[in-house]
Amino acid sequence: MIIKQYIAGPIEANNYLVADENSKEAVLIDCSERLQQIIDDVKNLGLKVKYILLTHGHFDHVMGVNEMKKELNAEVLINKKDEKQLEMTKTILGTFGLFVDKNPEYDRFIDGNTELKIGDIPIKILETPGHTEGGMCYLIDGNLFSGDTLFKRYVGRTDLPGGNYSKIENSIKNVLYKLDDNTIVYPGHNEKTTIGYEKEYNEIV
């Protein structure tokens, strides 16, 4: 499997290109800006990006959705519970002096019951509310893409609209910590970690 990380957008969020080497099918997880490097890598590796999977709807993870959707001809998927987060994008960006033509557009809603694959590799969708109501993580072949739910030694903030500390605590303890300790965690910001490491050293243990 191919995993490529890109740090993008005004708050340096992690975007991940994940591909099955056999079928060349891929997904882009989060989409902070139109990034030429992603477009070039897709072309050079001969990939077909099926989906842009959003971990949640905060502006720093979705600003590039409309442009990259066109560039990659990919479906944009998000949890319905974060639809309102997308609808606030232009307004929130304005408070930072940033501008987009329109709010990010999506193709369909997904949740924990949705079945997705790249090639023969299943994408398990884990609903992990707490940072936002519709926060989700994606488990692909032993690799967890955790968005802003779980970071190395800390967790996502819960003081923004839709945030709830008790929910993020439950999502981590009763969903993510149930995964194999060797699961590699690729978060929405900063460096990767593992479930086993976080069970020992995270602020939520």
Model description:
With 205 residues, the protein is α/β, with parallel strands linked by helices. It has one domain (2-201): Metallo-beta-lactamase, Chain A. The chain has six helices and 14 strands. It has helices at residues 36-44, 65-72, 83-87, 89-95, 165-174, 195-201; strands spanning 2-8, 13-19, 25-29, 48-53, 75-78, 108-109, 116-118, 121-127, 136-140, 143-147, 150-151, 154-155, 184-187, 193-194. The strands form three sheets. The chain has a six-stranded mixed beta sheet with strand order 1-2-3-4-5-6, covered by helices on one side. A six-stranded mixed beta sheet has the order 7-8-9-10-13-14. It has a two-stranded antiparallel sheet with strand order 11-12. β2 (13-19) and β3 form a beta hairpin. The relative contact order is 0.15. The model has no long low-confidence stretch (mean pLDDT 96).
